[in-house]
Specification:
Helix 1 (14-26) runs antiparallel to helix 2 (33-53) and helix 2 (33-53) runs antiparallel to helix 3 (95-102). By secondary structure, the protein is α+β, with helices and mostly antiparallel strands. The chain has helices spanning 14-26, 33-53, 95-102; strands at 2-8, 58-65, 68-75, 105-110, 117-124.
Length: 138
């Protein structure tokens, strides 16, 4: 099992940094393209939420083992993420709904030091987007 943590800047560029870092850290344990796409999308959504709606410091942590990955995004705000009902034409507000739909499991807990929260999700190998076979590369 591997556990690694990255401190992120409190700005929008943290989303791309986290997405690439998590994929690099987990590629060996989630080798299929569909699982990697889900991993990238959900990491992006949680980090974007931390930067847009949370407060510093923002961290991303990964626990991985063959066929299984857990990603944890922490920030300094204690406010829990909320699933929203959004209009079809809205350009945002779907992050928590995507995590709920695509993650194997997810949740929220306080940071161990009490200085905010950690939102986490897990992905398993062979996890793809609904309605699309997990072994498609595309």
């Amino acid at each position: 099992m591997t556990y690694v943590v990255l401190d992120l800047p409190f700005r929008r560029s943290a989303v791309g940094v986290a997405r690439r870092w998590v994929l690099d850290a987990c590629r060996v344990h989630l080798p299929d393209a569909a699982s990697q796409q889900v991993l990238e999308l959900l990491t992006s959504e949680l980090v974007a939420n931390a930067v847009l709606h949370g407060s510093p410091p923002v961290t991303v942590a990964v626990t991985s083992e063959p066929g299984q990955v857990r990603v944890e995004v922490g920030d300094g705000s204690g406010d829990r993420p909320q699933r929203r009902e959004v209009a079809p034409e809205a350009t945002g507000g779907r992050g928590v709904a995507l995590v709920d739909l695509l993650a194997k499991d997810w949740g929220v807990h306080p940071r161990p030091d009490g200085s905010g929260k950690v939102v986490w999700f897990s992905c398993a190998a062979g996890t793809g987007f609904p309605g699309r076979p997990a072994d498609e590369d595309g």
